[in-house]
Specification:
- The structure is a single chain.
- The protein is α/β, with parallel strands linked by helices and 173 residues long.
- It contains 3 helices and 5 strands; from the N terminus they run H-E-H-E-E-E-E-H.
- The protein has a 5-stranded mixed sheet, covered by helices on one side.
- Helix 2 (48-59) packs across helix 3 (138-165).
- The longest helix has 28 residues, at 138-165.
Length: 173
Amino acid sequence: MNASKRRVSALILVAPALAALSACGFRLRGAAIMPFASLFSGFAEGSALGREFNRAMTGNNVKVIDVASDKARADVVLDVLTDTREKSVVSLNASGQVREFQLRMRLKFRLRTQAGRDLIEDTELLATRDISFNESAVLAKEAEEGLLFRDMQSDLVQQLIRRLSAVRLANAS
């Protein structure tokens, strides 16, 4: 009888919390639903950002066309205007040695129909990260820099996918 009272009291305490969580509307973000079936990807051939974007779009059931001769088969065209990585000094110590860098990735793009109508005008996405520097751990800092660039690359791809999924093709022809 004592165990059943504990179960009932636990149920009374837990039930309102479960009801509140289910009512808040929380759900995990699923795959983006794209308003087009195929896309011409204008990333440079060796672009790591382009490779990750193409993989992500294929995962969203969009056929990615990256061969210029097949460009006419795509529903929309993604023109990549700039895809750059930058590294700049943020701070120096008293003796003039670098203490901190800022890493930046920029992606400037536009999305248009085959007829040339802009669906997304020239847009720039920017990701930045700060990294401290220590001369005694140069190899570790280079590895950390690589990881930060990959993280920024993933962020930019996700931002780009969210922008593309918000496009409305109605009356776009």
